[in-house]
Amino acid sequence: MNREYLTTIEKEMRKGLIEFAVLSVIAKNKIYTSDMLNLLKEAQLITSEGTLYPLLSRLSREEAVSYYWEESPSGPPRKYYQLTNKGQTMLNTYQILWIKISQSINFLIKKNEQ
Amino acid sequence: MNREYLTTIEKEMRKGLIEFAVLSVIAKNKIYTSDMLNLLKEAQLITSEGTLYPLLSRLSREEAVSYYWEESPSGPPRKYYQLTNKGQTMLNTYQILWIKISQSINFLIKKNEQ
DNA sequence: TTATCTACCTTGTATGACAAGGTACTCTAT
DNA sequence: ATAGAGTACCTTGTCATACAAGGTAGATAA
User: Fold this and answer.
1) Distance separating alpha carbons of residues B69 and B32, to the nearest angstrom
2) What is the rounded end-to-end Cα distance, in angstroms, of chain B?
């Protein structure tokens, strides 16, 4: 497979899904940033710390998430995130939107397979 | 539902899926830009001409698509687009990637519903 | 011959993903 | 004690791109 544009494709495909994924992950797990980063890297939705930290700062500023500090059994303290009520509402909205968007895309793909 | 952030959500959710959608639409249909725009607006994947025209220029420059002019039965001539071989390969790559990404997202959503 | 519709395209702004670089705490091995 | 490795936090600068708004021009109908 041609690698020349793959990089671009991978980058672009991910855009905008990240915020949704982050909210989902926070909703489900008791989780701190560094672990979140690993999880989202595994899911191929994020590649860099420079994406996640500013995003979490923005979500904090917008009061979609809150956090508390907790000591680590080994290493520096960790910042654990939680959804606020507003964040939960946002997540619900995202879920509805995700269904709509993925149906749109799947429709366009299917048309192509006829 | 709170409209305050909905705008942002709608914008962000769409990012990066657009190129994929455009390639799919071109692959399936004999289509010119203005019609493509309507189709993608209906699918809620695009809102503005300022998104589609530069994107098609870029895809042309990258030789993923080619075009030919054809007269309209009423109005100015139309620019019809086609996939090149490279464009077809890109589309295949996008389709594989789409499956992967949407599975990732669906996995994160499901975890959240447990 | 003017207005309307269709179709093309460009410019300027804001946002955000990324790579790279940076701080500081804890533990282990010397 | 202290140097290094590992963990966890965060910032800065660059580039790409979605969008709104504005602009050009051909064809048809009043």
Assistant:
1) 9
2) 24
Distance of alpha carbon A20 from alpha carbon B10, whole angstroms? 11
B19 touches chain A (CB under 8 A): yes
What is chain A's length? 114
Question: Cα B49 to the chain's mean position, in Å?
Answer: 12
A36-51 pLDDT per residue, tens: 999 999 888 888 999 9
Query: Please, which residues 42-61 of chain A have a Cβ atom closer than 8 Å to chain B?
Result: 43-45
Q: What is the DSSP letter of B16?
A: T
**pLDDT per residue over B24-64, tens digit each?**
999 999 999 999 999 999 888 888 999 999 999 999 999 99
What is the token pair recorded at B6? 């909905």
Report yes or no: B11 at the A interface, CB cutoff 8 Å: yes
β partners of residue A94: none
Q: Which nucleotides of C are covered by protein (CB under 7 A)?
A: 5-12, 15-21, 24-27
Q: How far apart are the first and last CA of chain A?
A: 24
Instruction: Find the Å distance, CA of residue B73 to C1' of nucleotide C15.
Output: 41
Predicted structure pTM score: 0.87
How far apart are alpha carbons A15 and B79 in whole angstroms?
29
Q: Is B32 on the interface with A (CB under 8 A)?
A: no
